[in-house]
Specification:
eight-stranded antiparallel sheet, mainly beta, 1241 residues, nine-stranded antiparallel sheet, single chain
């Protein structure tokens, strides 16, 4: 049964309804894509790079923060031929910057609804604040209308395939054909343009193999009321190789052999941002172009093996670009781009013959008679055209004797079983046209009168071939979607001309790569249940809907498009582009066949714009076509081409590639001569969908470890020291302190050098150190600015898939205009500093964590990692859960109690406790979670065991204590979690419990000699139940049994030992049976020292007490509590600390170590001197020696930072002169300090 939601969506797609989506310039926005090494500004009106009119736009910069720029702009151009109301066919081209004489927009404008209107940026996957509340194209999801709070990803709801993904939509409805009238939408006569809507996605991966690549994807939809026969797409590239001031010596190039547009610099010398570094290259490659699924040509070269090749002869008399089969050979617009040249193999065409022998069983086969008939026509066409039946419909092309015996297409489902004609529908087969009409005897009778057994399906142009009695009851083509699944005539003529004229909108798995693992539903994330196609055992296409559909079919399968490739390339000097002329743009940039190539001597240097086009292609109403490119940067052409190859691999895997782990969230704590870093463990749950797919589910989570990079510059050049075989900087080197690398990895058998190299360099996986989540850097200088990146990394693939490991993103982005710095979650800036005057660091009350209940032997320690996060008078409680590990040793075994987990609760407000850590199973001895600035460390014991070292007597010279779990014969005890004491008294007036340790058979009769009866003794036993220090509250009496054997053969009723043979036993009976009777736990005895005549140790006497200490893990009875005190400033100490204030450096010689890299394009950059040991709030006044006020600085910093700075600018914003200066520091309520310093040239 066809799913309800899918039926609705397919109905909408078959009867196309125009949308209400329109462009609105009020929603123009821009945002940077910058998660890898390439940064560029994406504008949601068809531009990436900079516009030239909006300040702050970033051209393609590589590497990030370097200021080294390569491409000024990439812009979207789409044109179509339209029929105006005046009856003329005119081109209408939408291009950025176009406007009318009054300045009104005539270009792409963003569609409202695909961004958060309150955000200044467009939607980007890693910033939910930019997302709209709901998505306009997702309201057809009945289970989750509009996808509120979810990411609208390329592969579906919350599918984050790329590390960063930008998404927006634009409309051309503000454009028009000057001097003519055209209304593209009959439902809205106010709508202008060609009613084209374009969805744009820009994606970046951090994975090392593609960290120099930006992907730009376009989906162009005809949202109008009319079909277009001719549509073309162009990318407008404006070079800026070498940056501003150096773009006049660029040399663009285009290589048709690999569809790459090159942006290069003629002399390799750039503007000052490049310094002495040579200028690299930018390569824009076109990895996906629109498809043409009606021309019978395998435009993308992925079709049937052994198929016929388009030859130069077949081009004769074909008029390029008119979408007509001019020379009547069955192909449309074949041209020289299809003909092989050099070592190319060329492309094939659909001849309707099974050339590779994989067609459906029982297909009819080519006969000699057919070959003879075809030989009569110019193109060896069968059947002959114009015979009164075939008319102009071309069926088989190029038929000759080599085809005899091969199957051919006849329009009939030949491998269907007439008794069950639709049996081969999913999941039994690979699809059948359920409910399609079946061949009847009347049809056979009609076809019998034709020499070739032809039958024309009524009301269509479809002809069936070779009908005979064997076809009765089999489905045949009728051009109708009989089963409502969107696909038409599926399962008919399978394996013939496969992957020629394929489409990403035909609801067919053209390449047969859909698998049951892909059965995740039309939303792409397994949401929506069976109504959304989840686990329905057949492909669910997103074609014609706002949903992505399942992987490996239509929208999500890039191979299912018969891409036509690039059809023209043009160029002109920058600034000369006639953007107002539709005719010029259409004729000189967008019409196929004109490929500009630079002269053999090379293109003269200059400032050029390049236009790269794919067209013409048809675009019916409701149809979507796609074009995508990858902008790759490299040090030279070879480096850029390597990056391009990986980009193409990513495309071939449907824009999926190995994904670096998520970055951890990091915090830096600056201190005096030290910087502490700590981070969370969120990266350890990162999933890699691509690795999961290529390893058949073996690898899903591939997190391996952490590394720290440290630098004093925002580009991390200090750390980028590992080069590849060509000398290209490739890997960052982890920070090393005291000879130890700041790198930690899982203990999982993956260590050392990864086997896959990247151009001669390998990735180091680590040394099986185990993970760590904090780090203290003590090799720092107070006042110096440090940048740290804590990256997570994965373990990559192997030699089979050649995926090398990769670091997580490390975003630190500098605005070269404002110098503003934006940090990613795992990148921090820290300046070590002495604390402010009077500073006293945070603490725990009484400097300990108090054990308030329970009997554990475990200890809990604390460490204050982040003093500024510690709260004042905040109280916390730690509790535990335990678990019993059942006896695994049989009758001689026992149950064992272990600690299961711990919980940390903020109990400051007793009526509303706040659980901070809940049932955490890992009790860390080191590297625990940091909560409110404090890390706990648990020193647990593994299980309940007697501790002889801690057990003791109250007096000396007594036999040492021996104790253990009691288990003799049938009396199997339970280890109880208590400490015990045995107290000896004068009188034998304490009654013991009777204990039988062996029974006869299954009876309750004690075996003779194994009963220890109740008796009176001179001792009693207690166990500790509290920690109050009050005897009656902390100890309770327990039952016990006395096994009296000494003196041997004549026991005397007293607890003693003979030193050589045996000791009496006291059996603690504080466990209970199921019916409540006392049961053994531990026994207590005296150690023997056989044959040692020098020992003079006595038996216990009245007044002696034995303390039996049991090592106990943290159990559910245990409770610990502690209270924190926040950092504070002591006023008295602050007064004394005012004398510590000083200026660094003093004198200042033209520069200081604290002055970081100049991020401005021009000028010297900032200067700085620092004042140390300042109060947290104070005023610094600087005077020259004449007593004139030079600058007044109001200092206000957290109390742990006692450093302030002066940028050596006067109050008039002028550079301070060289000479001597006086400073005066005043702090209200604390005091004043005066000093002097010098600035020396």
């Amino acid at each position: 049964m066809v799913k309800h939601m899918l039926i609705f969506l397919l109905f909408v797609s078959s009867v196309y309804t125009q949308s209400e989506e329109r462009g609105d310039p009020d929603y123009r926005r821009g945002t940077n894509i910058d998660v890898n090494k390439v940064r560029a500004t994406v504008y949601n009106f068809g531009i990436i790079g900079r516009t030239g009119t909006i300040p702050g736009g970033v051209p393609f910069e590589w590497p990030v923060n370097s200021g080294k720029e390569y491409i000024a702009m990439g812009a979207l151009i789409v044109g179509a031929e339209v029929m105006t109301e005046e009856g003329e066919i005119r081109p209408l081209v939408t291009i950025p910057f176009r406007q009318d004489q009054n300045g009104n927009s005539m270009t792409w404008e963003p569609v409202a609804g695909y961004l958060n209107p309150n955000s200044k940026e467009i939607t980007i996957s890693d910033d939910p604040s930019t997302w709209p509340e709901t998505w306009p194209d997702k309201f057809d999801d009945e289970n989750d209308p509009g996808w509120p709070g979810s990411w609208n990803g390329y592969f579906g709801k919350n599918q984050f395939n790329a590390q960063q993904e930008v998404f927006y939509k634009v409309s051309d409805d503000m454009n028009y054909v000057s001097g003519y009238t055209y209304h593209p939408d009959t439902t809205d006569i106010t709508r202008q343009g060609a009613a084209l809507l374009t969805g744009v996605r820009v994606m970046e991966w951090k994975q090392i193999l593609i960290e120099d690549v930006v992907f730009i994807l376009h989906e162009i939809t005809n949202d109008g009321s009319f079909d277009y026969d001719k549509v073309a797409f162009s990318l407008w590239l404006a070079d800026l190789v070498g940056g501003d001031g150096d773009s006049g010596d660029d040399t663009p190039d285009f290589r048709i052999i690999n569809d790459v547009a090159w942006s290069m610099d003629s002399d390799g010398i750039g503007n000052p941002a490049f310094g002495t570094d040579p200028v690299g290259v930018a390569a824009t490659s076109f990895i996906e172009t629109p498809g043409n699924n009606v021309d019978r040509i395998d435009n993308d070269g992925d079709g049937e093996i052994n198929g016929p090749i388009v030859t130069e002869l077949m081009i004769e008399n074909e008029i390029l670009g008119n979408a007509i089969d001019d020379n009547k050979n069955g192909l449309i617009d074949e041209n020289m781009a299809h003909v092989p040249f050099g070592d190319q193999s060329g492309v094939t065409f659909a001849d309707r013959i099974d050339n590779d022998g994989n067609g459906e069983a029982d297909s009819p086969t080519i006969t000699q008679e057919m070959v003879d008939a075809a030989a009569l026509s110019q193109w060896n066409i069968w059947p002959e055209l114009g015979d009164g039946f075939q008319d102009s419909l071309v069926h088989i092309i190029g038929l000759d004797a080599t085809d005899i015996g091969r199957g051919f297409a006849d329009g009939i489902d030949n491998n269907a079983n007439p008794d069950e004609p639709y049996l081969l529908e999913y999941p039994i087969g690979l699809g059948a046209e359920v409910n399609s009409p079946l061949v009847t005897s009347d049809m056979i009778s009609s076809a019998s009168s034709d020499v070739w057994g032809r039958y024309k399906v009524p009301g269509t142009e479809i002809i069936l071939y070779g009908l005979d009695d064997s076809d009765i009851g089999k489905p045949y083509r009728d051009g109708i979607d009989n089963d409502g699944d969107g696909a038409i005539d599926e399962g008919i003529d399978e394996g013939i001309d496969e992957m020629i004229d394929e489409s990403r909108d035909d609801f067919l798995d053209n390449d047969g790569d859909w698998a049951m693992d892909d059965d995740v539903g039309i939303n792409g994330d397994k949401s929506g249940g069976i109504d959304a196609g989840v686990s329905d055992q057949k492909p669910s296409s997103g074609s014609g809907t706002g949903f992505p559909g399942e992987p490996n079919i239509d929208k999500t399968d890039v191979s299912e498009s018969d891409q036509m490739g690039l059809t023209s390339v043009g160029y002109d000097p920058a600034g000369s582009i006639p953007i107002a002329s539709d005719a010029y743009l259409w004729s000189f940039y967008m019409s196929p066949g004109d490929f500009w190539q630079p002269p053999e001597t090379g293109q003269p240097p200059g400032d050029y714009d390049l236009f790269v086009t794919s067209g013409f292609f048809p675009l019916s109403k409701g149809q979507t076509e796609r074009i995508a490119m990858a902008v790759t940067l490299g040090n030279d052409e070879a480096d850029a081409l390597r990056n391009k190859e990986v980009a193409e691999t990513t495309y071939e895997y449907d824009y999926q590639f190995a994904k670096a782990p998520n970055p951890p969230k990091v915090r830096a704590v600056p201190g005096d001569g030290r910087i502490t870093l700590y981070w969370d463990d969120s990266a350890e749950d990162s999933e890699d969908r691509y690795m999961n797919e290529i390893t058949n589910g073996v690898v899903n989570r591939d997190f391996e470890g952490y590394k720290i990079y440290r630098a004093t510059d925002t580009e991390f050049e200090d750390a980028l020291t590992i080069t590849d075989g060509d000398g290209n900087p490739t890997f960052f080197e982890p920070y090393t302190q005291n000879g130890e690398r700041a790198q930690w990895d899982l203990v999982n058998g993956k260590s050392g050098w990864h086997p896959v190299s990247l151009n001669g360099v390998q990735f180091y996986l680590g040394d099986e150190t185990g993970l760590q989540h904090s780090y203290v850097d003590e090799d720092v200088v107070n006042g110096q600015t440090y940048y740290y990146a804590v990256v997570s990394y994965d373990f990559g693939g192997d030699e089979n898939n050649e995926i090398i490991p990769s670091d997580s993103p490390m975003r630190l982005r500098v605005n070269t205009i404002t110098n503003e710095i934006v940090y990613g979650p795992n990148v921090v800036k820290a300046v070590p500093s002495p604390p402010s005057a009077g500073y006293s660091s945070a603490s725990v009350l009484d400097n300990q964590i108090n054990h308030v209940r329970g009997t554990t032997s475990g200890k809990i320690f604390y460490e204050i990692v982040d003093p500024q996060k510690v709260k004042q008078d905040q109280s916390y409680q730690i509790t535990f859960d335990d678990t019993v590990f059942s006896n695994q040793q049989g009758i001689s075994g026992y149950d064992t109690v272990y600690t299961k987990s711990y919980t940390l609760v903020d109990i400051t407000e007793p009526h509303s406790p706040d659980t901070l850590i809940n049932n955490e199973k890992n009790l860390p001895l080191e590297d625990g979670k940091i909560i409110d600035g404090i890390r706990l460390r648990f020193e647990n014991v593994p299980s309940l065991e007697f501790n002889p070292e801690k057990s003791y007597w109250s007096n000396d010279s007594i036999w040492s204590i021996r104790s253990d779990w009691f288990a003799l014969f049938d009396a199997i005890g339970t280890k109880m979690p208590y400490d015990y004491r045995v107290i000896f008294i004068e009188d034998q007036n304490v009654i013991t419990e009777e204990l039988c340790i062996r029974f006869i058979g299954n009876t309750e009769t004690c075996f003779p000699g194994f009963l220890y009866p109740s008796k009176s003794v001179n001792f009693f036993v207690q166990r500790r139940i509290g920690l109050t220090g009050i005897e009656q509250n902390d100890w309770e009496d327990i039952p016990f049994t006395f096994i009296d054997v000494i003196p041997y053969g004549n026991p005397d009723g007293y607890f003693n030992a003979d030193g050589n043979r045996e000791s009496d036993w006291i059996v603690f009976m504080d466990d209970t049976t199921e019916i409540g009777d006392p049961n053994p736990s531990w026994y207590f005895a005296l150690n023997l020292h056989q044959g040692d005549s020098l020992l003079t140790i006595d038996n216990p006497r009245p007044g002696d007490t034995a303390y039996v200490i049991i090592e106990k893990p943290f159990l559910s009875e245990d409770v610990f509590e502690f209270t924190t005190q926040a950092s504070f400033v002591s006023s008295d100490q602050a007064v004394n600390d005012m004398d510590k204030i000083k200026v660094v450096p003093n004198p200042y010689y033209g520069a200081s170590a604290f002055e970081g890299k100049n991020n401005y394009i021009n000028g010297r950059g900032p200067r700085e001197i620092q004042f140390r040991y300042l109060p947290s709030v104070c005023t610094i006044r600087i005077f020259n020696i004449a007593g004139e006020l030079v600058r007044e600085i109001h200092h206000s910093e957290p109390i742990n930072l006692g450093t302030g700075s002066w940028d050596l600018l006067t109050k008039d914003n002028l550079d301070a002169s060289y000479g001597m200066y006086i400073y005066h520091v005043s702090a209200p309520g604390i005091g004043e300090k005066t000093g002097k310093f010098a600035i020396i040239k």
